[in-house]
Amino acid sequence: MTTTTIARAWRVRRADGFELGFTDHDAVLTFDGVRFRPDHGMSARALVQATGLSVDNSEAEGALSDDAITERDVLAGRWDGAQVKMWEVDWTDVSARRLIFAGSLGEIARSQGAFRAELRGLSEPLNAARGRVFHPRCSARLGDGHCKLALANETFTTEAVMADIEDGRVLHFAGFPAYEAGWFERGNLMVLSGEAEGLCGTVKDDTAMQGGRRVIELWQGLGVAPAVGDRIRLTAGCDKRAVTCRDKFRNFLNFRGFPHLPSEDWIMAPQAGDRRG
């Protein structure tokens, strides 16, 4: 009878620094300052790996347990993009181990008290588009290194206390600072306090009402809904148009689009005339 001493161990680290370790061995393993627990908080399927620059892919799955990966944290998106490392380790001598996977958690699905998460390899970012995009609208993200807009300016960022919430995504405010209607549409909302602290959403609709009341509707709920009295930060939205960059943000010198680029209709239309001259 042949006996193996090889076990698998994996560490998952969230963006906020919280980390968990799991193993398919029947006892705790400890290395790199992490305790790898033998419970069923998470397990991983066999890896599908390829040579070259192909993306490694696999799935991790497990139970939503109170002391490991909770359903509330998954709903809140706190595990999205978490770093994952997986080793094959000799449980009789943990110094004899081999790293077999490094990457991050991708899309997470939930069903009947369990979760299933895609594992994305280190080559996943190579799928992203590279190079300059030639388009009438701006290619920069508001406030990034290309845009260079200082979002800390109170003109573009404000904080308020939530007065009410409907359907988990329609937030009401009273005594809201004076901003024109629609100022925060396409902008960002972040919860600064309460159980939903740190969660962000994108603003779909921004309605200004009489008496300083404001209604902010998100495209989708935050997973963990903020509660009345929670403090919210809102950042102005940008629709990427040149006129918006010029008139709303006074930042046209840093506009990264091509507003005078001819439209596809003009390029394709035969009646556009002789373009040789």
From TrEMBL:
Residues 182-265 form the Bacteriophage phiJL001 Gp84 C-terminal domain. InterPro entries: Phage_phiJL001_Gp84, Phage_phiJL001_Gp84_C. NCBIfam families: phg_TIGR02218. This is DUF2163 domain-containing protein. It comes from Paracoccus sediminis.
